[in-house]
Amino acid sequence: MTKNEIADRLTEIGVLLELKGENPFKIRAYQSGARILESMEDGEFGRLMAAGELDSVKGIGDALAQKITELHTTGQLEFLIKLQASIEPGLVELLDIPGLGPKKIRALHDKLGVHDIATLTAACNENKVAELDGFGPKSQEKILTGIKHREAYGKRHLWWEANEVAQPILTGLRALPQVERTEAAGSLRRGMETIGDLDFLVAAADFAPIVAWFVGQEGVQEVTAQGETKASVRFASGLQADLRIVPADQFVFALHHFTGSKDHNVALRQRALARGLSLSEWGLVPAAGEGTAKEKAENKALRTSADTEADLFKALGLNFIPPALREGLGEIEAAEKGALPKLVELGDLRGAFHNHTTASDGRNTLAEMTAAAAEFGWDYLGIADHSKASFQANGLSEERLVKQIEAIAALNTAQQFKTHIFSGVECDILTDGRLDYDDELLAKLDYVVVSVHNAMTQDEAVMTARIIRAIENQHTMMLGHLTGRLLLRRESYKVDATKVIDAAIANRVIIELNASPWRLDMDWRLWAKAADKGLMCAINPDAHETEGLRHVAAGINSARKGWLTKDSILNTRDLAGVKRWFAERK
Ligand code: DGT
Ligand code: CA
Ligand code: CA
Ligand code: ZN
């Protein structure tokens, strides 16, 4: 870790200690340590570190020198990790609000019981902050404005919600006569679970009318930048969108560049350089010679032409790399060897498991959910309502679950729908890892999904053992939402994913890819390796209403980012195939 990064960590320690109300001398030691490092020259720092003489610097004592050394050599600091874990995440979030430092947050916490943004908002609305010593009506006002700003502008956005904004913009752009080609690029195109901003790319010769349309769209709250060939706008939700317009013969290069990711771009640019070529948003040109990349690219004679991204990749000796895989995680090496996977597609899904009905906390009945699945053309639909321990979700008692099994059997017999219904359950994993129903009842179901819904603050070892015990239950066929995270809203519970994955493989238990746009759990970053080891996946919408079945599309995004193929996803199999899988597992 570099000197300046270390200084940042020391500053962070100071802030966190202050947030905890620790001894002011201790706090000051970290603050001044950070300042000393910042003003030190890199060479001097390196020399002192190598000689082990950091503690000879005035203001850096033994303890601080040790921590700096640990950060420098390992890039981590045990002390900081523990400190971070010891503070409520809600309190740390409050630091983002302008005008609120650690001291003030401490006062709000101690005097008013404020521990996150919601409780702070409530305290302001009750005028309690205005009456507090050291605050006042003006600072209360400022805090409220800060909270509103943060909610509206400061955050990332769910892919699902960003895509709902993006699609009509694409449709609008395509309808303009000047627009020759257009695509959404950036993280949206790569299918990331959250989106910082939207990036639109247009090929055209006549720029002005397109820029005018873009900044004049309904819903634009502010035009944050406007030029001849580009513009940026902000919508009421806080989501921002960038537009760039390029000549048609640069479109593919610009599309590739602005699709990213940055890591992928850097790696691909290096590959180009190794072949004597320079790759940029303007084109692919010889690296040597006169002129900047842009000047060279403008010289058509030099630019390799490309009508599609496949041409671009081919010019670099690569197979086409789907945007989902462009994260700089080995995709270029695989493309070179012709070893890219044939990624799963939305059209591959034949049904889905883990869906709720009005029997627990869903908003549509069994028949309505089945009708919606039939309309999708799905061969089967799995119903997995909550179990009795999830009383807050109206979980089913034994009697009610037996009734549901009978109702599903009757619907299947009546053949009212083309879609077959599987009887499942989303059974709570109790705090010690036992399941919420006894074996006799679980045996009556087609399949059992097990999930954690309570005691989410258990420490990692306890939580991991709890989930593994549930996986080892002979009736368990799928594990629901591995970490319980809610994107942009709630952190994961602590669990050792590798151990759980290994246990699932050993017990032939599927881990779901919960496709709810708020979850996308298990995370795509874990899938490639897990599937390689033999883990099976099910893309489960966790639908609580008919509309929710559509969320499988978000799950497909993550599955693709996780390099998954049809073979490792149960719900790409046909009805007979799924029945066979269930039967073999029993
Ligand atoms: P986001 O918006 O935070 O969800 O993520 P992206 O990937 O959409 O990032 P954004 O909007 O900042 O930029 C779009 C793409 O443009 C990015 O994925 C790669 C490319 N790009 C942007 N800045 C750089 C850069 O400094 N270097 C390189 N190589 N590429 C960049
Ligand atoms: Ca972006
Ligand atoms: Ca952008
Ligand atoms: Zn659940």
Tell me what the structure shows.
The chain has 586 residues and is an alpha/beta fold. The strands form four sheets. The protein has a seven-stranded parallel β-sheet with strand order 10-11-12-13-14-15-16. Helix 22 links the parallel strand 14 (478-479) and strand 15. Helix 21 (460-472) runs parallel beside helix 22. The protein starts with a helix and ends with a helix. Bound molecules: 2'-deoxyguanosine-5'-triphosphate, calcium ion (CA) (2 copies) and zinc ion. Residues 186-187, 192, 195-197, 199, 257-258, 260-262, 265-266 line the site of 2'-deoxyguanosine-5'-triphosphate.
CATH topology of the largest domain: TIM Barrel
Radius of gyration equals 28 Å
> How many independent structural domains?
5
CATH architecture of the largest domain: Alpha-Beta Barrel
